[in-house]
Amino acid sequence: MRYYRIRDSRGDTHLTAETQPGTLSSLTSLNSDVTDFRELLNVSDISGMSVDNIARNVLSSGDAETFDVAQLTESSRSATGAARIIAPLAPDEIWAGGIGNYAVPDEGVAGMPDITKTAYEADRPPVMYKGTNSRLAGPFDPIGIRGDTAKTVAEGELVLIVYKGKLVAYSTGNEVAGGLMGETLWWMVPSKVFKGCASLGPCIVTPETMPDPTGRDMELTILRDGKKVGSSTNTTTLRRSPAQIVEWTQAHDSPPDLVIIYTGGCVADGPLEAGDVVRISLDGIGSVENTVEVV
């Protein structure tokens, strides 16, 4: 299934599931204890049932309140209307893996500088810390660019949802990358960690619905004053599998329960400016659309 979080006109949060194309059914309207995807993961971990089967059991208990995806998307994009789509979950930590995970052919890797070549040839994938949920933007919230560097770029990526060390679902979003790391590797952390340094959504998709997230079309578009100033397309093809990326984040660490990992993907070359609108679409998951602001 695909799961969305909705905030209604009363300010209440609903966890919803797409039960028919374009129609979201609120699990929260049937069971007030179910307001977040993490709660389904908790029950799944205890019971051994799949997240989707747990959701089906909840939905079978009555007539759920429903929402229309197209209407919600428009009201979220325009910041109008009674209900909005918000970030599909609140992770404990955010991580990013980019260089080294792109699907670069071996002959392309051979010509790279040694420091970059290592990232592609080593068993260990490069995965960098990007902060906590307080830095994460929802699918239609503002994203940030750093005011202390001339170049911050948008990166559309497949996102892995990891719960207690297991890969449990997928999403997409913008892994906003500050330019400080290009000046010196000693500034790697501030280059990656700042308010609005990533966006997520619009939904979460389980492996039952998307058994293989690789090879899917992704598109990134940047609009400035309504005109396209940047774009890029790619597919979610990686040198290392999602399972391998997740395995290495657990190998010598004890991460918190709920972690999301950006895997690398679609990059726009030009620097972002305040007021730009960045739209990232991933086949099978949907789109995020974020306005840029300086932080």
Q: Would you give an account of this structure?
A:
The chain has helices at 37-47, 51-59, 69-78, 106-110, 114-121, 180-183, 188-192, 242-251; strands spanning 2-7, 13-20, 23-26, 66-68, 84-86, 93-96, 128-131, 136-137, 143-145, 152-153, 155-163, 166-174, 177-178, 198-199, 201-205, 217-224, 227-235, 258-267, 277-282, 286-294. A hairpin with a 2-residue loop joins strand 16 (217-224) and strand 17. The radius of gyration is 19 Å and the shape is globular. It folds into 2 domains: 2-86, no CATH class; 93-294, Fumarylacetoacetate hydrolase, domain 2 (Alpha-Beta Complex). It has 295 residues and is of the alpha+beta class. The strands form 4 sheets. Strands 1, 2, 3, 4, 5, 6, 7, 11, 12, 15 and 18 form an 11-stranded mixed beta sheet that branches. It has a 5-stranded mixed beta sheet with strand order 9-20-19-16-17, with no helix packed on it. The model has no long low-confidence stretch (mean pLDDT 92).
Briefly summarize what is shown:
This protein has 295 residues and is an alpha+beta fold. The chain has eight helices and 20 strands.
* Number of extended strands: 20
How many domains would you count in the coordinates? 2
**What Rg is obtained from the alpha carbons, in whole angstroms?**
19 Å
Distance from first to last alpha carbon = 36 Å
Task: Write the CATH architecture name of the largest domain.
Answer: Alpha-Beta Complex
Q: Strand portion, in percent?
A: 35-45%
Main beta sheet strand tally, sense and closure: 11 strands, mixed
CATH topology of the largest domain: Fumarylacetoacetate hydrolase, domain 2
Structural class: alpha+beta
Q: Please state the average pLDDT score.
A: 92
Number of helices: 8
Q: What is the C-level CATH assignment of the largest domain?
A: Alpha Beta
Report the principal-axis shape: globular
